[in-house]
Structure formats: structure tokens, C-alpha cells
Amino acid sequence: MKLFFRLFLALLVSTSSVYAWSLFSSSGEERYPGMGGDFTLQSAEGEISLKDLRGKVVLMYFGYTSCPDVCPTSLGALSTALKQLDSKEMQQIQPLFISVDPERDNGDKLQEYSRYFHPKMIGATSNLDYLQALASRYGAYFRKVEVENSSMGYAVDHSSTIFVVGKNGKLMDMIQHSDSPKRILEHIRMTLENRH
């Protein structure tokens, strides 16, 4: 009986949160007013702007290719979730990896790294000042950290969040680093079902 009650309670909480998200996101109000916005970055194939991706759900992640563990873990979970989407769903998705280490991450390196996780993922970057402003607008952060006795010379401490931008270019959701591929998939599908 206790097990049944726990399962029922978990289902109720889960259903309520999805319903509340649906009500809020379909109301026409912005979920994160004042956050997000358009930007233009440089990729191996030239400039890419958020406004060029209108009509698609953009999954943005700030990181860097030399990241030892956080980026591979997060992008691996995202990749696993993306593989669960059908072709119609995937047509509406654009994964975007934004490097916060332009000193080491050039276009070709970024492209190779991004496509390792998903063939559709675009890797892009810009200069540090632009990236700092962009990260701040989305509620992300990063900072260079000197590493002694390392051939890398420095690491980049950064937040680990997947930012979900709706088809209208507005920030719709934030998926945390600790979320499982299953939970990431749920977030993606909720955004796809939303009309904004």
C-alpha cells in the first residue's frame, strides 16, 4: 500500500508540473523575461545568428572542447536524448555548442568536436567580450582558471546548462547538468509541443 501511495504521489507531482508548465508557456508570457535574445557567432561554415534559426527549437550549451568531464557528460546526455527523437521531431531541432574558449577553439576544431556528439550540432564562438555578454544574458557564466603543472596551461570554469530557445527565438527552458537523457527528452518534447 505504501509503495502504491508513493507511486501515485510521484505521478501526481510529475503530471502537475507538466500541466503547470503547459499552462504557463501557452499563455503567451515569457518564461524568462529580460533574458536571452539574438546573437551572431562564427562557425566553420561562416556566421550563424539565432534569428536565422527561427522556426526551430535551439538547444544551446556553453562549454569548450578541452573540457575534461562536464562538457562530454552533458553533451553525451543531450546526444542520447536526441537519438530518441523521430525524424519529424529532429527536423524542428538545432543543437548549438558555444565555445567559451576562442583562444583554442577554432572553427574546424569546433565542428569536429560538435559533430562527434551529433551530426546536426553546430559549433560556434566569438571574442571573449561578446561571449561574456552573451553568457550573462542567458544566465550562464564562465571564467578562465590557470592550472599549474599542466600542459593545457588553463581551464575554463563554466556553468553547465542546456538553454532551450523556442521557435520564436525566446528562451523557453533550462535543462540542468544533472538531468538524465530521459528528462532532457521530456523537456525537448514539451517545448516542441508548445506553439511559441
Structure description:
The protein has helices spanning 2-25, 70-82, 87-90, 107-117, 128-138, 181-193, and strands spanning 40-43, 46-49, 57-63, 93-99, 122-125, 142-146, 154-158, 161-165, 171-176. The protein is α+β, with helices and mostly antiparallel strands. The protein has 2 domains: 1-30; 32-193, 3-Layer(aba) Sandwich (Glutaredoxin), CATH 3.40.30. The protein has 6 helices and 9 strands; from the N terminus they run αβββααβαβαββββα. Helix 2 crosses helix 6 (181-193). The longest helix is centred in the first third of the chain and has 24 residues, at 2-25. The chain starts with a helix and ends with a helix. The protein is 39% helix and 24% strand. Mean pLDDT is 86; it is low at 2-28. It is globular. The chain has a 7-stranded mixed β-sheet, sandwiched between helices.
Topology record:
Layout: H1 2-25, E1 40-43, E2 46-49, E3 57-63, H2 70-82, H3 87-90, E4 93-99, H4 107-117, E5 122-125, H5 128-138, E6 142-146, E7 154-158, E8 161-165, E9 171-176, H6 181-193
Parallel strand pairs: 3-4, 4-5
Antiparallel strand pairs: 1-2, 1-5, 3-8, 6-7, 8-9
Helix pairs in contact: 2-6
What are the segments in which pLDDT stays under 50 over at least 5 consecutive residues?
2-28
Mind describing the biggest β-sheet? 7 strands, mixed
Number of strands: 9
Q: What fold name stands as the CATH topology of the largest domain? A: Glutaredoxin
- Beta content comes to 15-25%
Report Rg. 18 Å
Q: What is the SS-derived class?
A: alpha+beta
